[in-house]
Amino acid sequence: MTVSVGIDKIGFYTPSLYLDMAELATARGEDPNKYLIGIGQSKQAVIPPTQDIVTMAANAASQILTPALKAEVAMVLFGTESGIDNSKASAVYLAHLLGLSPKTRAIEVKQACYGATAGLQLAADYVRVHPQAKVLVIGADVARYGLRTAGEVTQGGGAVAMLVTADPQILTLDMVSSYHTEDVMDFWRPTYRTEALVDGKYSTNVYLDFFKTVWADYQQQTNRTIVDFDAFVFHLPFTKMGRKGLRQILPEAQPDQQKSLKAAFEASQEDNRNVGNLYTGSLYLSLLSLLRHGQLTAGARLGFFSYGSGAEGEFFSGILQPNYQRGFDGAALTTLLAQRKRVSVAEYEDIYRAQLSNDSRDVQLPVGEEVAQYYLAGRQNQQRQYREQ
Ligand code: COA
């Protein structure tokens, strides 16, 4: 008998600062509605130098890992394109910071915004073979395009942590999925750069083309059509992107279903609209947003489109489980977002420039205002100094 496998728990973390997108638009000489409606972003997470992918992942994972679960994690798959080391995996730093058992495999997975999906699917296959195993999958990134660039409005950052197990509380993953890879230069970041190179308009078109391709292939493999779905969840580098994706397939649905799919999309973009781009975590923040704000019932089939520039796309699906609300702490996320402090454009620019320098100097970061459990205190002897409070 095939074991049902999927997402048992989800945790999310984003730092305690944000920038208002209407204010950024005004500072950049743009109509605020371009950012609020045209791009579809209201707030953007501002990442202080005291947070990086490891600390954000630890802050997300600590929400879902009890001491007993920490002893049971068999593998950590850390999806990111914001790596802090060309050799050592961020998953190893994370496993140590969380106090996981040394009997754990810990590796990093990279393919732009697709990394966490690769982690999720590899984790699911592993658990199908080892049904007792629990795998921690992370999607954590800092989305940086640069001050005064076209991509600036699509920045952000944060981490999603998912526990993949047999008989999961939130979502069982269907076995069939459709994936597609092509060598495309729409977005990339050579090792000498701290900001990505991107052709945003081209990337938007590749995203939509890949979605068309994998959606058609998925339907052919499964004989399912749009009527078999209650909601679609998209990778959201900015919320308008997913809206364009949904528009591409809506004509396949009858008017009533179009209405419910649109309502589900509105729920799925709400939290992303207030956090910004998490790169590889974005699809899973959108899932969390749908679970928090949507009107879904157990048994609903959800479709997921994952896209990582460069480029790789995947369409997969899963079934919502009866106790899905027990798999995440919605109230904690509401509090996390509500308690963030708004920074001005000038403050954001200072924080943006204050990121840990790309050299070997010893640095002590100003940790006085840091409220997160895990944070970065600086660098000594070329080693990042992680702390817990
Ligand atoms: N009110 C409402 N909408 C407005 C507006 C206004 N006053 N002014 C402009 N808009 C709309 C435009 O019509 C456009 O909508 P559309 O895409 O539906 O046609 C949208 O706002 C964006 O305007 P545009 O002129 O295309 O913006 P831009 O040249 O500044 O670029 C991106 C936008 C998204 C391409 C750019 O931010 C970017 O490159 N981001 C990075 C993308 C990325 O991360 N890609 C890789 C991962 S998939």
Automatic annotation (TrEMBL):
Keywords: Acyltransferase, Transferase. The keyword Transcription does not apply. InterPro entries: HMG_CoA_synt_C_dom, HMG_CoA_synth_N, HMG_CoA_synthase_prok, Thiolase-like. Residues 175-253, 266-351 form the Hydroxymethylglutaryl-coenzyme A synthase C-terminal domain. Its EC number is 2.3.3.10. One of its GO terms (molecular function) is hydroxymethylglutaryl-CoA synthase activity. It is an enzyme of class 2 (transferase). Residues 4-166 form the Hydroxymethylglutaryl-coenzyme A synthase N-terminal domain. Pfam families: HMG_CoA_synt_C, HMG_CoA_synt_N. Belongs to the thiolase-like superfamily. HMG-CoA synthase family. This is Hydroxymethylglutaryl-CoA synthase.
